[in-house]
């Protein structure tokens, strides 16, 4: 096994406080495609775009020749150039302060808030917290913290593909390959684990395409809004276990906790919510 590279924290900490600002108007087509992808899983709020749609706005338009072999943008730029091979969106917090409507021009200011090194079972881990302030006409409508974790590559052996067609319980959510492709397209996410079956099974060792963390968070935050009867919520979330295409999950909730659970009891994603 190749040893993990040393992390030059003095160099990486130079990215602390860096910020970038981007804007995009919410086009009717973006709203329509998002609704078509999630359907009845969305909180039915009138005169506002669905919770989670903001992740489809102003994605980084990285040139094709500036992508790494996994489809992620190459290291550097706004995010620090962390030399660890694997990068994932581990969790975060989002506060929906005011509704966003179709036609609004949404401006997002993103700032590197913290860079923290930890030691994991597979080697060094680096956590980068990115803070977002999202406003419409100068009024902050969404506040968010995104937690990104970098770690050494996890080269697991190929896993056998499983057939879940016969064990889908009533009311379960099943993310299929088409849904994952649509979500990747809406968010301009080139990470190959979500749409490239040979890559994700042979190179990454998963049994099937991997369901996006933000897609799972979107399901849970909308379910939380349905339970509270309002879209003005704070939602803290984190990924716990991989979910792959075709695996049915149920939305479970107790008190302020809400989670996605496989048929074998494994929790893939969880969150906690409160009204604002």
Automatic annotation (TrEMBL):
Residues 51-142 form the FAS1-like dehydratase domain. InterPro entries: FAS1-like_DH_region, HotDog_dom_sf, Mitochondrial_HTD2. PANTHER family: HYDROXYACYL-THIOESTER DEHYDRATASE TYPE 2, MITOCHONDRIAL (PTHR28152). One of its GO terms (molecular function) is (3R)-hydroxyacyl-[acyl-carrier-protein] dehydratase activity. This is FAS1-like dehydratase domain-containing protein. Pfam families: FAS1_DH_region (PF13452).
